[in-house]
Design goal:
By secondary structure, the chain is of the alpha+beta class. It has 5 domains: 200 residues, P-loop containing nucleotide triphosphate hydrolases (Rossmann fold, 3-Layer(aba) Sandwich), CATH 3.40.50.300; 174 residues, Rossmann fold; 158 residues, Orthogonal Bundle (Topoisomerase I, domain 2), CATH 1.10.460; 99 residues, EV matrix protein fold, CATH 2.60.510.20; 115 residues, Orthogonal Bundle (Topoisomerase I, domain 4). Helices cover 43% and strands 20% of the residues. The protein contains 28 helices and 28 strands. The strands form 9 sheets. Strands 9-10-11-8-19-20 form a 6-stranded mixed beta sheet, sandwiched between helices. β24 and β25 form a beta hairpin. α14 crosses α16 and α19 crosses α22. The longest helix has 29 residues. The radius of gyration is 32 Å and the shape is globular. The protein binds zinc ion (ZN). Zinc ion binds next to loops.
Length: 776
């Protein structure tokens, strides 16, 4: 204590001690004015031998056990979680005992050493684990919050591999980056550090705090996004306001209160105008009302006092959310809206803006495409206003959906005497594709199968006679082909590949991706741009090292591909979550599977070219002679990361072989899968990243199409509804009309087309087509 006082008062220049978890030097002193540099001689680490375990403090036991737990069984992992939250002395005793048992057992030690970043001393019986928490606490002594910002400091680490590499890798999971000393401009750094100390000293008591640290209300849609953002800025304090969870953190620029609006807060009403749109002097004015959510069944609706689905009166009205947001914005000096970066997110932002604008003088929009600390800090520093064009595009989209949906659905319901039937501009042509393909599938064709000792050939048409025969095979050549990687995922490709490889539905994939985005693990998942940003290049180069080949895949715009935000493989992600280095609540096995696919695809897109090896052989059966080309190997470069595009077959052996020839009747075309449908939508310009999954889900939900073994089959109802719509409203639901309309809505977003003119066009079109019907 004396030494610390001497240091604090300037009689000592430095303090030297041990960087232990919860030790005095890393936790016990808070002297931002004095502490400028932290030097770690050796990375903070746990070094444990059997003898140490008895003497270790409880806190160290907890940290160590957390790190080890991922190499242990389920029970131990549960214990680790309990230890981090609310440990009893019994729990700690148990953990200590388990660690002792491990150190006594060579086999257990070596099973732990198979984990990449836990290092076992060569002489054995000693475990070394990098200790990120202690590093964070220790280095944090130099950069403390004060009114006006965060003090600048420098933290230097001196150590060697393998522990250093292992340490840096773990640190990256927490968005901590390191530079080689040679890359640092030491003079510049020193003057910045001194400057920020001068700033604190110059702060006089009683200085207006408000001038230095603004209070801001940060509104996002989802609770998990709010929680993730709050976690970037130290330990947030929480409070409840009328059912809204609010997090309070300090960012250096702001005292930030983060809340979630819970998605849309208003929707078109059904009670006034033409299905919720008033027409006043030739201007179309959409009329909105609050959204009610049924607490009993989760159904969302407007304009009713009881749930239309289950009849419950236990409802939550979004009015109460608006009330809470208004109250909170009164308290803050500015409001920042951080909804998702697309037209739907922009519309939610605009709704919030309209509803709270009389309770705040400063309302801004923050746009970010990944929920990482870097992206959030950047977004908070480059605030903008609400983008009108995006809002207008979304208004047209919603009005169009409402009008055509209500009008056509009413017709379908009347004709088929059933509620819960619907029709829409995009879903109807898509339903048509499924039906057409089903008809093609029913047409048969003949194929010949040649089977023999380890050989299977499949050829179109009737080849030779059925029965026993001989085959002559002669290899003509084996050639190699260099292949470039596929681009990283856009929404359509992600849905397609997750369906094909992981057997996930379009809807499920989008829900899983939404979670991965909100918890900061991937970039925004609704995108049609394959572009890779500089942040993406960094991730790839950290994973690939010398094998990194930067490939941009597109230019311009803020949008980019779907990619991981951190250089972590799925396995590393799981390890770090188990160990408690990263906290992601609610991460399931399916989230990990999708993350793995996204990670692999992205890393592949930044890798070296791969190689395909093909065998060309001449084959003779009876009097028929033909050439066969088969892929016998796919390897190297990106293919090692993303092997799912090829299925190599065994190389054909030369010589004469006894075979059996069969003729089979098979469908002339395979049925569509969800993957095929989304690819077609993208190709033909029907649907957008925000609607692909919804369209597929609609035709399944309405019972127009069923799915069997991933294959889509139209139902009798589906075929009848489709035929009815096609005969009665051919222009409204034609593929061409839908495509044109999608393009027009895009041009509203681009600011090229006027949204009122487009709504007017839609109004006249629908009235004419429907009115004509009534007159018939
Ligand atoms: Zn209900």
């Amino acid at each position: 204590e004396d030494k610390v006082r001497d240091f604090s008062e300037g009689r000592l220049d430095c303090l030297i001690g041990a960087a232990k978890p919860y030790g005095v030097l890393v936790r016990g002193i808070d002297l931002p004015k004095r502490i400028r540099y932290v030097i770690f001689y050796g990375v903070p680490k746990f070094e444990i031998t059997l003898r140490d375990v008895n003497e270790m403090e409880d806190a160290s036991i907890i940290s160590l056990f957390s790190s080890l737990s991922r190499a242990l069984g389920n029970e131990e992992r549960k214990l680790a979680i309990k230890l981090r939250r609310n440990p009893s002395s019994d729990d700690i005793r148990r953990a200590r005992q388990i660690i002792e048992d491990i150190l006594k057992d060579e086999e257990k030690i070596s099973s732990i050493s198979s984990l990449t970043d836990i290092i076992i001393d060569a002489r054995g019986r000693k475990i070394v684990i990098p200790d990120i928490r202690t590093y964070l606490q220790g280095s944090g002594r130099t950069s403390r919050l004060y009114p006006g910002g965060i003090t600048r400091g420098a933290s230097l680490i001196w150590d060697e591999d393998p522990i250093l590499t292992s340490f840096i890798k773990r640190a990256r999971a927490q968005e901590i980056d390191f530079l080689q000393l040679s890359e640092v401009d030491l003079e510049k750094l020193k003057s910045e550090i001194d400057e920020s100390r001068r700033l604190i000293s110059s702060l006089k008591k009683g200085y207006e705090l408000a001038n230095l640290l603004k209070t801001a209300l940060f509104i996002v849609e989802s609770p998990s996004k709010a929680r993730t953002i709050a976690s970037f800025f130290g330990r947030p304090s929480r409070r409840f306001l009328d059912g809204l969870m609010a997090y309070e953190v300090t960012t250096g620029d702001y005292v930030l209160t983060i809340v979630a609006s819970g998605g849309h807060i208003v929707d078109l009403t059904t009670t006034v105008g033409y299905h919720g749109v008033l027409i006043e002097d030739g201007t179309y004015v959409p009329a909105y009302t609050s959204i009610k959510r049924c607490n009993a069944c989760g159904h969302q609706f407007t304009d009713a006092d009881r749930c239309p689905r289950c009849g419950s009166t236990d409802l939550r009205d979004s009015k109460s959310v608006v009330e809470s947001l208004r109250r909170l914005s009164f308290e803050a000096s500015r409001v920042i809206i951080g909804t998702d970066p697309d037209t739907e997110g922009e519309k939610i932002a605009w709704d919030i803006y309209q509803l709270i604008m009389d309770s705040s003088n400063e309302i801004y929009r923050a746009e970010f495409h990944e929920v990482t600390k870097r992206a959030i800090v950047e977004a908070l520093r480059s605030l903008r206003g609400i983008n009108d064009r995006m809002v207008k595009a979304q208004i047209v989209r919603r009005v169009e959906d409402r009008w055509i949906g209500f009008e056509l659905s009413a017709e379908v319901q009347k004709r088929f005497g059933k509620r819960n039937l619907s029709a829409g501009r995009a879903q109807t042509p898509v339903l048509g594709w499924v039906i057409d393909r089903y008809r093609e599938h029913q047409n048969k064709k003949v194929v010949s199968i040649i089977k023999g000792d380890g050989l299977l050939l499949r050829l179109d048409g009737k080849l030779e006679e059925v029965g026993a025969s001989k085959i002559w095979i002669k290899e003509l050549k084996v050639e190699e082909e260099v292949v470039k990687p596929p681009p990283p995922f856009t929404t359509d490709a992600m849905i397609g590949e997750a369906n094909r490889i992981l057997r996930m539905s379009a809807n499920m994939t989008m829900q899983l991706a939404q979670f991965l985005f909100e918890t900061g693990l991937i970039t925004y998942h609704r995108t049609d741009s394959p572009r890779v940003s500089d942040a993406g290049f960094r991730v790839a180069s950290l994973v690939l090292g010398d094998d990194f080949v930067p490939r941009k895949w597109g230019e311009g715009g803020a949008h980019e591909c779907i990619r991981p935000t951190k250089p972590l493989s799925a396995k590393e992600l799981v390890d770090y979550v188990k160990e408690g280095i990263m906290i992601v609540e609610g991460l399931s096995r399916d989230h990990i599977r999708l993350y793995d696919l996204i990670f692999r695809r992205f890393i592949a897109s930044q890798s070296k070219d791969g190689t395909l090896v093909k065998q060309v052989a001449s084959v003779r059966v009876g009097r028929s002679e033909f050439e066969v080309t088969r892929l016998i190997e796919a390897r190297g470069g990106w293919i090692d990361w993303y092997p799912f595009l090829y299925t190599p077959e065994p190389r054909l052996k030369e010589g004469v072989l006894d075979v059996v020839i069969e003729h089979q009747t098979v469908p002339s075309a395979p049925l569509y899968t969800q993957s095929n449908l989304v690819a077609l939508m993208k190709e033909r310009g029907i649907g957008r990243p925000s609607t692909y999954a919804t369209i597929v889900e609609k035709i399944l939900q309405r019972g127009y199409v069923i799915e069997r073994n991933q294959k889509l089959i139209p139902t009798k109802l589906g075929i009848e509804v489709y035929n009815f719509l096609r005969d009665r409203f051919p222009d409204l639901i034609s593929e061409e009309r839908t495509r044109t309309l999608e393009r027009k809505m895009d041009s509203v977003e681009e600011g090229v087309a006027d949204y009122q003119a487009l709504i007017d066009e839609l109004y006249n079109e629908i009235r004419e087509k429907m009115g004509k019907l009534a007159a018939d």
